[in-house]
Predict the structure.
Amino acid sequence: MAQPAWDEIRTAFQVARLGTVSGAAEVLGVHHATVIRHIDALEKTLGTRLFQRHARGYTPTEAGRDLLTVAQTTEEQFAQLSSRIKGQGEVVAGELTVTSIAGIADLLVPLLTEFQDLYPMVQVRFLTDMRVFRLDYGEAHVAIRAGAAPEEPDNVAQPLPPIRTGLYASRDYIARHGQPRDESEFANHRFVCVDSETSRAPFYRWLRSTVPASAISFRGTEAAALEEALLRGAGIGFLAAYKASANPDLVEILPPRQDWDAPLWIVTHVDLHRTRKVQAFLTHLKEAAKSWPV
């Protein structure tokens, strides 16, 4: 069986990453017909379909995602080799993809921009989503995850300071509904909660086990929407203590508890963990985290 050409693999990698032939063609500096020819030739060589074609672009099949993993790692290793050959081992450049829970974007965006100030040749992709991105499929270089320590064997997990979380209400809510004296009065109040009974957040699990379902009057999927609902007086809700302390319109209902803390983890894939770009970012992230107001 003939071996696939690296140009074809690199083309497929860019199509999988960007989702369109035109996007890949622009990045690679070739005509879109060349991209299509490379994909067709690679699929013929491998004897399998790598992409589902549809009107919006190309979506990798399972085989395509496997190829993306190999291509991502190979691309990084070629970049390192090229830097060493050219005597530019200190250069940190190219795309850096970081995924995170949305609730700490206000902590991460400043350090990402500072990182770009240090390394102007880096292009940042900062992705926040409810799903867990697959590092083994090359979907990101670094992931910031909350909850139990990740256990995937090919991932490297390092702890970050946990986010302390308390229960708060806006002054507007208290003016309209009063302030509960203790948990025994919670059934007579309104609460803001994530719209997922399988949420891993310890404070939301506590809330669902403490108050009746009828008391949860506002549900949402995005951290920003839940925070806005809390601030607008939709109900009593959870918020990171550092955010609440900076807002004079919020009243503490229950202080942070250790069993509500959300452990945070930096997660990288073993194949990319030691690359200069990832190591530079990890060093910057861990140093910045020392001064987080958590």
User: Anything to note?
Assistant: The CA atoms of residues 69 and 231 lie 42 Å apart. The chain has three domains: 6-84, 94-162+262-290, 165-259. The chain has eleven helices and twelve strands.
